[in-house]
């Protein structure tokens, strides 16, 4: 059974039936990454705690800023790829860039989740109080951004698996 | 210029000169992942704050527990692979598992870094005070675990690039 392809023929043979799912996946990733960026950018809420005004926004933490930056980078990168001619000869470079992209998105969402968990539940051992009761709108935005970022990450993970599968049959019984 | 390989011949042609760097990279990843696990597991410090005993250990946060779990999984996985016969026929599966491993390690270290940043600098907006002045030994351990975890992640990233390079020449000018 011949189920393999040399990489020389990889790009050339990217038939329409293979390019359409890839295009749709990139479109999904683009929508999710842009949504994540915008939802996080617009996250804002304020509350009065003990008479002091407490304002919550994404710039309050370097982790949220990192999340915005990574999702913005993913958006721009995906946008460029969508307009790249399909017969482009950067197949390998794109595979490596896709890998880096999924790692950056994975990293940004994990960092954000760790911080969000403290924001939601606090940490009694460290004396950090939860803040979501005070600024529920901010927490809702962060939650929304995390969901969108998660979809972008999953989309990129599938893009990567799909690219690998196009280069070599991942589901072959042997190999 | 023939610089390509079909995947059929991938495993069979994994010559000694290619298996030795891979073995060394896995050995590095194993050492780093085991170190990260042990350093985090043994992180412990306590302090008296306002007359109350404050104890810092990794079980205080789900993020640190997640870090320990992921590095333990990476250790066991790497150990199994080191003892797997070199002529094994799970090439593609291992590539995908390596990808998942680098994503899990990346995720655990990013989450831990986000939490560590709050532990070190606090967050004035959320009213979270830094804790590293009170429990410096704990913070040193977390820092050490993060460095070891980072080395394991980088090792797995290189393992992945190297595996991809063995399947298809990543640095070919064309493609």
UniProtKB/TrEMBL annotation, chains A, B:
Keywords: Cell membrane, Membrane, Transmembrane, Transmembrane helix. Residues 19-154 form the Casparian strip membrane protein domain. GO terms for cellular component: plasma membrane. Pfam families: CASP_dom (PF04535). It comes from the Eukaryota. The chain crosses the membrane at residues 23-44, 64-84, 96-118, 145-164. Its main location: membrane. It is a multi-pass membrane protein. It is found in: Cell membrane. Belongs to the Casparian strip membrane proteins (CASP) family. NCBIfam families: A_tha_TIGR01569. Homodimer and heterodimers. This is CASP-like protein. It comes from Handroanthus impetiginosus. The lineage of its organism: Eukaryota, Viridiplantae, Streptophyta, Embryophyta, Tracheophyta.
């Amino acid at each position: 059974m011949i189920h393999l392809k040399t990489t020389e023929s990889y790009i050339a043979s990217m038939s329409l039936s293979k390019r359409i799912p890839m295009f749709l996946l990139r479109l999904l990733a683009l929508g999710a990454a842009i949504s994540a960026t915008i939802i996080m950018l617009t996250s804002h809420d304020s509350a009065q705690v003990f008479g002091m005004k407490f304002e919550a926004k994404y710039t309050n933490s370097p982790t949220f800023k990192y999340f915005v930056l990574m999702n913005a980078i993913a958006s721009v990168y995906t946008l460029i790829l969508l307009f790249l001619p399909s017969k482009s000869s950067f197949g390998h470079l794109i595979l490596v860039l896709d890998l880096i992209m999924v790692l950056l998105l994975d990293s940004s969402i994990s960092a954000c989740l760790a911080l969000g968990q403290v924001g939601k539940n606090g940490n009694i051992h460290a004396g950090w109080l939860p803040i979501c009761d005070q600024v529920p709108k901010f927490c809702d935005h962060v939650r929304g951004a995390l969901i969108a970022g998660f979809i972008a990450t999953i989309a990129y993970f599938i893009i990567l698996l799909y690219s690998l599968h196009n280069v070599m049959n991942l589901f072959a019984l042997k190999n």
